[in-house]
Specification:
The chain has 477 residues and is of the alpha+beta class. Strands 3, 6, 12 and 13 form a 4-stranded mixed β-sheet that branches. β8 and β9 form a beta hairpin. α2 runs antiparallel to α14, α10 packs across α17 and α17 packs antiparallel against α18. It is globular and about 70 Å long.
Length: 477
C-alpha cells in the first residue's frame, strides 16, 4: 500500500500525541499552592549578563505589580527559544511555554499547526486590535480570517548593509559627508565594481547555503517581477517561478560572479554567520541585512560606527523588500486565566500606549543595549501607527542616544519612518513552504555562483517542477 509523505508525517504526529497523552494527559491546575496563576514565559537568557539580569528584574516587578490581580501571578522562566526543528515536538509534548517569541516569518507555520491560541477577544481587552496594530502586520501575517494570533514586538524590513570604510576608500561619499546610496540593483553592481577596483575587496556578498541564499534572494527576485507561487480558484497551490523574470534575477547574480567578479571566492559556501563576519572584517562591502545586524557586529570586536544600512534598491519591475521581525504568541495549552496573564505580560513588553511600565522597560532595554554596545539609532518599522505616543518617544530617544553614525543609517531611517522611499513595498515571506522554497533556491544560487556555463533556464524549470512535486503537491492533497 502506497502511503504519501504527508500521511506518514500525520501518522507519526498522531503517534507522538497518543504517547504523550497516554503518559501525561492528567489535567493539572493552572495555579500554584498559593493560588497564583502560573505563567510560563519563554526566552529566558541562558548566559549571565545584562540581558538575564534585566529579565529577572522584569519578572520581579511584574509579579509585584500583579500580586493582587486575580489571586496573583507567578512567572516560571523558560529558556525555550523558537525553532522550526523543536516547535512541533515541544507542542505535541505539551511543553511549550504559555507565551513565547517567534520570528514573524514563522507565524503562519505556528498558526497552521493548531498549537497556537486565538487571542482576539482577550487581546482587544488590552487594546490590541485592528485599529492599533500596523495594518501591514495584521492581514495574513499575525491575523487570519480576522482572528489575532500574536502581538508584534519587533518589525523590520531587509536593507542593504555596508562597510563605511570600504565606501570611503572607493570614493562613494558625497561632498557633504553622506554616503552614496545605490538606488537600483544595477547601481549595486556598479558600486561593487568600483569598490573592487579601488580596494581589491569584494563589493558584494550574500548567503548561498543553509536556506540563507534563498531567503536573501527572495526580495531581489520579487523586484525582478518573480511570483514564486499562486493559489488557484480551487485552493490549490502552484509553483510559478519557471519564468523569464526568475532567469533574469539569477542572471544578475551570475553577472556579479562571472562578469564583474565582485564576490568573495568562496561565495558558493556562505552561511548566515560567515557573511556578516566578512563584512565586519572588511573583506566585503555590501550585504542584505536587517537592522539588528549591528548587534552581531558588536560581538565581533569592530566599531559599529563604521557600518551603515540603506533601504533595498529597486529592481526592473518592483521596489520591494522583505518583512520580518518577532511576535509573541500564546500556546493553546494556556487556560483562560493563563491567557489573560500572558496578555498582561505582553502588555509590559510591547504596547502602543506609553505607559509608565512600557517607558521604564524601554529605558532599561536601551541601557542594556548601550552596555552591550548593541546598535542604537537605526529605526525599525513600527508595530504601531507612526503618530502614537510610544513610537514618537522611542524614535526621539534612539536618535538622541545613538551609538551609530547617523549619516550611515539616515536613508534607512527615512524609509522606516515614512519620510522618504514611500514607494517601497513591504512584503511578508511566501505563504506556503517558505523554508523549503529557500532550500530549493539555495541550490539555484549555488549553481549560478559555481558554474560559469550554467543553463539558468534549465535549472529554474527543474527546480520549479521539483518544488511543486515535493512540497506544494503534499500541501494540496
Amino acid at each position: 500500500m502506497k502511503i504519501s509523505f504527508k500521511k506518514t508525517a500525520c501518522l507519526a504526529m498522531a503517534a507522538v500525541l497518543a504517547v504523550s497523552c497516554f503518559a501525561g494527559c492528567k489535567k493539572t491546575s493552572d495555579r500554584d499552592e498559593q493560588g497564583r496563576v502560573i505563567l510560563k514565559v519563554g526566552g529566558y537568557p541562558t548566559t549571565e549578563g545584562p540581558s538575564k539580569d534585566a529579565f529577572d528584574e522584569k519578572v520581579k516587578q511584574f509579579e509585584a505589580d500583579n500580586k493582587d490581580y486575580n489571586g496573583g501571578i507567578v512567572v516560571v522562566k523558560d529558556t525555550y527559544a523558537f525553532s522550526v526543528d523543536t516547535f512541533f515536538s515541544k507542542a505535541a509534548g505539551k511543553k511549550l511555554p504559555h507565551v513565547f517569541n517567534t520570528a514573524l516569518t514563522e507565524v503562519s507555520t505556528c498558526i497552521n499547526s493548531s498549537y497556537i491560541k486565538d487571542i482576539t477577544a482577550v487581546a482587544d481587552k488590552y487594546g490590541y486590535n485592528k485599529k492599533t496594530i500596523n495594518p501591514k502586520l495584521w492581514d495574513g501575517v499575525i491575523a487570519q480570517d480576522n482572528k489575532l494570533y500574536g502581538i508584534p514586538t519587533y518589525t523590520y524590513a531587509l536593507g542593504l548593509a555596508f562597510n563605511g570604510n570600504l565606501f570611503e576608500q572607493a570614493g562613494l561619499v558625497n561632498e557633504d559627508g553622506t554616503y552614496m546610496v545605490p538606488k537600483t540593483w544595477d547601481e549595486v553592481a556598479q558600486f561593487a565594481v568600483q569598490i573592487k577596483e579601488k580596494t581589491g575587496k569584494a563589493g558584494f556578498i550574500t548567503g548561498s547555503i543553509s536556506r540563507i541564499g534563498g531567503w536573501l534572494f527572495t526580495p531581489i527576485a520579487w523586484s525582478y517581477g518573480v511570483e514564486f507561487m499562486k493559489q488557484d480558484k480551487n485552493g490549490k497551490w502552484k509553483a510559478t517561478f519557471d519564468s523569464k523574470e526568475m532567469v533574469n534575477a539569477l542572471q544578475f547574480y551570475h553577472d556579479l560572479r562571472w562578469k564583474y567578479d565582485v564576490l568573495p571566492s568562496d561565495i558558493g559556501n556562505i552561511d548566515n554567520a560567515v557573511a556578516p563576519q566578512k563584512l565586519a572584517a572588511g573583506e566585503a562591502a555590501m550585504l542584505l541585512r536587517a537592522p539588528d545586524y549591528f548587534d552581531q557586529l558588536s560581538q565581533m570586536g569592530v566599531d559599529i560606527k563604521d557600518f551603515g544600512l540603506f533601504p533595498l534598491p529597486a529592481g526592473p519591475k518592483r521596489h520591494v523588500t522583505l518583512l520580518g521581525g518577532s511576535v509573541l504568541m500564546v500556546s493553546n495549552e494556556a487556560t483562560e486565566d493563563q491567557t489573560d496573564a500572558a496578555l498582561r505580560w505582553i502588555s509590559i513588553t510591547t504596547n502602543h500606549k506609553l505607559t509608565d511600565t512600557i517607558k521604564e522597560n524601554f529605558l532599561k532595554d536601551m541601557k542594556t543595549r548601550a552596555e552591550e554596545n548593541r546598535g542604537i539609532g537605526v529605526l525599525e518599522l513600527s508595530n504601531w501607527s507612526e503618530d502614537t505616543e510610544v513610537v514618537k518617544f522611542s524614535r526621539e530617544y534612539e536618535l538622541e542616544h545613538a551609538n551609530l553614525d547617523l549619516k550611515k543609517v539616515q536613508d534607512y531611517n527615512d524609509f522606516a519612518t515614512g519620510k522618504a522611499y514611500k514607494n517601497i513595498e513591504i512584503q511578508p515571506e511566501e505563504p506556503m513552504c517558505a523554508q523549503d522554497l529557500y532550500s530549493t533556491v539555495d541550490a539555484l544560487v549555488q549553481e549560478v555562483f559555481t558554474n560559469k556555463n550554467v543553463d539558468i533556464a534549465k535549472i529554474v524549470k527543474e527546480a520549479n517542477a521539483n518544488f511543486q512535486k515535493d512540497y506544494l503537491d503534499t500541501v494540496n492533497m
